[in-house]
């Protein structure tokens, strides 16, 4: 049984997925689970039963404490954990964790972070814990890129999240792909970032970042004029959207600084290719590792006496 | 009967609507009809019967000739009228009109215009006839803005359409309003351009045109942070999208030149407000008048002998 060594359980509970780890006193992974039982699937009141089923499946002791990051803490989620405001100390998320009263074990949900600046209002839930993991690993300052449905670009200074911007890149891709006049042209392709069409589109947006809404229709026109191969259309859309994001975000970047890209898989490769096209230096880290490290750091702060050491 | 004076019928046949006029030899309107029987409703083969029913309803003679602009000439429409390429003479659309063979009367469908420049591929159908109407009225050069689902900005030089760009402004508004995470925040408001939120959003985009995809989510965040009134959300979205369009399009504008805005109603007012915010001089013309004038000019070139004069 993993349980004899377990110090805490950590859960990254997003909108569409959840991931759970049993961690030992050094943050090592004793066991893990992931499932599609995200916040949406758990509404209105299945959070605890879903969590307990996974913990039981991993043989966790009934008194093992649990720390949770992500949308489970949203209003209308499991328990609302009010937003911290920027600038926010990322090594102190535990100070604003909410305790799930009435739960059968000690469960703490971490807060998200909000930014209230006029015209730049923004929110995140989950990414702050990835960033806390990066801070715990020694990356205390710099610009971080977290691609996704709602990509975040976050500026850290000495372990504090000072500002961030959400780009609706992934959602716009999905909307245009599923519901727009571009739908037929985009076809069934994957939007491969290795396609020349991706790189060309990124270059266009870097040269002329203002023109995104005036470039999307060119995908449709190219299809109608029938002199572009269909598989390139999706790569072009991806390149335009990611290129627009990077063209805007690089304004936040100090000259010659390195961006920390928190991504993996095909999405990570696309952002790496686009950052390279923009001559931006980057390092790539795995988001799942970081959120686990961020959750572990918070757990050690919440329960400094440890449990099983 | 209107027919005794009629010189030709003119039809603006779009994707979702059609409008038909009986015109006399000076281009005066003897009678008109409009309906929701756009290209979509007429596919695959109802174009002629729909047209004949409206002509009969107006008492048109069976041999009255008809000139048609718009999506009826698209591939898969009534008859495909191949695109002219930029630069395109707008007083010579009739030279590339296609005759609908097999129709019971003389029916000519005008071509659209395409632009084949790499990365700026674009197409229009219908707007070229509005522009032809403007040329016929003496506006032979300058920058024209035609707002819509797919807004067009067109550059004319001496009666030639030399280049144009389509902005997916209207479609993006609809997609975000109907299908995105912003949907709930946008509520049921109208997006009034008189709202300060509209003007603020336009100003933001004019100052920082590159950031559209990084500004959309602020609408959602403002709703979550609950310190912005809901009715402003739609005005903010409208302002961001129209502002992004104008921020990009003004790069095509010669210093101090006047934009010709072809628009009406609430949409026209929104563009007027945004152009004013950008310190761009404009004149506003009615699109329906222009397309009718463009169709009439083409009809007089197609049938110079007239009919009933």
TrEMBL record, chains A, B:
InterPro entries: ATPase_NBD (IPR043129), DGOK (IPR007729), DGOK_C (IPR042257), DGOK_N (IPR042258). It comes from the Bacteria. Pfam families: DGOK (PF05035). This is 2-dehydro-3-deoxygalactonokinase. The lineage of its organism: Bacteria, Pseudomonadati, Pseudomonadota, Alphaproteobacteria, Hyphomicrobiales.
């Amino acid at each position: 049984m993993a349980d004899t060594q377990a110090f805490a359980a950590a859960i990254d509970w997003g909108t569409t997925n959840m991931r759970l780890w049993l961690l030992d006193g050094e943050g090592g992974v004793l066991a893990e689970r992931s499932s599609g039982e995200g916040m949406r699937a758990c509404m209105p009141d299945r959070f605890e039963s879903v969590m307990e089923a996974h913990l039981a499946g991993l043989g966790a002791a009934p008194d093992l404490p649990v720390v949770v990051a992500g949308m489970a803490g949203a209003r209308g989620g499991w328990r609302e954990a009010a937003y911290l405001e920027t600038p926010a100390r990322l090594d102190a998320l535990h100070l604003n964790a909410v305790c799930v009263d009435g739960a059968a074990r000690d469960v703490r949900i971490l807060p998200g972070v909000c930014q209230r600046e006029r015209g730049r209002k923004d929110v995140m839930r989950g990414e702050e814990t990835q960033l806390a993991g990066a801070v715990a690993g020694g990356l205390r300052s710099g610009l971080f890129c977290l691609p996704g449905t709602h990509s975040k670009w976050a500026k850290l200074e000495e372990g504090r999240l000072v500002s961030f911007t959400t780009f609706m890149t992934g959602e716009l891709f999905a909307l245009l792909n599923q519901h727009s006049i571009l739908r037929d042209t985009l076809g069934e392709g994957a939007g491969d970032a290795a396609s020349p069409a991706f790189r060309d589109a990124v270059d266009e947006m870097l040269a002329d970042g203002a023109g995104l809404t005036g470039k999307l229709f060119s995908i449709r026109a190219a299809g109608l004029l029938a002199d572009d191969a269909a598989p390139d259309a999706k790569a072009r859309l991806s390149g335009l959207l990611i290129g627009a994001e990077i063209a805007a975000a690089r304004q936040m970047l100090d000259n010659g600084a390195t961006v920390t890209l928190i991504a993996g898989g095909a999405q990570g490769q696309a952002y790496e290719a686009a950052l390279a096209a923009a001559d931006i230096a980057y390092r790539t880290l795995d988001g799942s590792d970081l959120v686990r490290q961020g959750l572990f750091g918070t757990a050690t702060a919440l329960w400094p006496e440890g449990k099983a050491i």
